[in-house]
Amino acid sequence: MISPSFFRTFLATKRLRSSNPIPDPGAEETCRRFVTRETGLPADPLDRPSWPAQTLSMALPGGRCNHPTPIAPSNMMTNPPSTPETAPTSRSLRVLVTAGPTWEPVDDVRYLGNRSSGRLGAELARAAGDLGHLVTLLRGPGTIDPSPHPRISEIRFQSATDLDQELRNRWPAHDLLVMAAAVADFRPVRIPDAPRKIRRSDGTHSLELEPVPDLLAGLAELEHPEGTRVGFALEPTEDLLKAARAKLVRKDLHAIVANPLETMDSERILGTLLVRDGTEARPPAGSMSKSGFAEWLIARLVELHRSRVDGNRDR
Q1: Range of the domain at 271
Q2: Which residues contact 176 (CB under 8 A, 6 or more apart)?
Q3: Whether residue 50 is found in the same domain as residue 148
Q4: Does 35 map to a domain?
Q5: Residue 117, C-beta contacts closer than 8 angstroms, at least 6 positions apart
Q6: Is residue 227 part of a domain?
Q7: CB contact at 8 A, 255 and 273
Q8: β-strand 272-275 against 255-260: which pairing, if any?
Q9: Are 139 and 154 in contact (CB under 8 A)?
Q10: What does DSSP assign to residue 15?
Q11: How far apart, in whole angstroms, are the C-alpha atoms of residue 131 and residue 155?
Q12: 21 and 168: one domain?
């Protein structure tokens, strides 16, 4: 660990440069030795400086390593400054969107999946980004690559286990979660000594399934009182609203989108937004394109989140 004296020396050398423009090779060599002692990094020859030795030499008066750009070692993380397109504003929300299916492995070759294309989730991410919000898109396998967007960062997942880990790691840092991913309800039980590839020549096989934990319900256990969690209910039309209301309560959500099964193979969607307080909302145009529905829905969800947060602060 770099000691506080390291940073005090760095600041001192910056002051030295501004007050004394005369070259001082002795001070530069002293500084290099200090860097080596404090960081364990080798001090390179003066014509090929290392980082942070180069950074310090830039602050020294007339140092021969006074290059315009310090070079960081490859094992260090750097955060580029926000650009005007991606810099958050006081009205920006941090939106976490999931999209696409999960693939649950049967062996190292095969998997159980579903027909989700991830298109609606990608459209929701785009709509949120277009409104100026900062979006993290968790995108499942086999989905179409969305167009790049300056306000959307994308992370891929494969299985429900992968998605669960990403959600638990990232949700506390976001304001609004839109869980549009089609997570498997069941997954194969993996036998430790099973072959990596099940072969046809081995004869008949039985596949034992186990339920996948409810990822969205599990997030309710995390301490995040001002976060707004929104789920989706993909159900047959005749049971749609009843099943959606039951999921809204069971998963402890703030809202849920009732989504008919026919949406999965359609270019259009006729969805209903059900809110915890009992209110319902539908697009005035009725059936819409998925991109149009995404824009309508994100606007409603942002409004819902802000009203919740403002209400909590007034109490």
Answers
A1: 94-186+209-314
A2: 93, 94, 95, 96, 133, 227, 228, 230, 301, 302, 305
A3: no
A4: yes
A5: 100, 143, 144, 264
A6: yes
A7: yes
A8: antiparallel
A9: yes
A10: H
A11: 21
A12: no
Question: Quick one: 216 and 275 in the same domain?
Answer: yes
The pLDDT of residue 120 is 94
User: Per-residue b/e over 123-160, b at no fewer than 16 CB within 10 Å?
Assistant: bbbbbbbebebbbbbbbbbbbeebeebebbebeebbbb
Measure the CA–CA gap between 272 and 230, rounded to whole angstroms: 12
State the pLDDT at residue 208. Answer: 93
Give the CA diameter of the chain.
84
Q: Do 234 and 127 lie in a common domain?
A: yes
Report pLDDT for 96: 98
At residue 122, the 3 state secondary structure works out as helix
Q: What is the pLDDT of residue 198?
A: 85
Mean pLDDT by 10 residues, the chain (315 residues): 46 41 49 49 40 36 36 33 48 95 94 93 97 98 92 97 98 97 95 82 88 96 94 94 97 96 84 96 92 97 95 68
What the block records as the tokens of 230 is: 């929104």
Q: How far is residue 250 from each of residues 71, 150, 169, 222, 313, measured CA to CA in Å?
A: 53, 36, 23, 16, 26
Q: Which two tokens stand for residue 88?
A: 């958050």
Query: What is residue 83's predicted lDDT score, i.e. its pLDDT?
Result: 43
Amino acid letter for position 95: V
Does 79 reside within a domain?
A: no
Amino acid 79: pLDDT: 35
CA–CA separation, 253 and 90 (whole Å): 26
Domain identity same for 156 and 43: no
Instruction: Please tell me whether residues 175 and 293 are part of one structural domain.
Output: yes
Which pLDDT belongs to residue 26? 53
Both 243 and 145 in a single domain? Answer: yes
Same domain, 141 and 38: no
Number of domains comprising the chain: 2
Peptide linkage before 52 cis (omega within 30 of 0): yes
> How many residues belong to the chain?
315
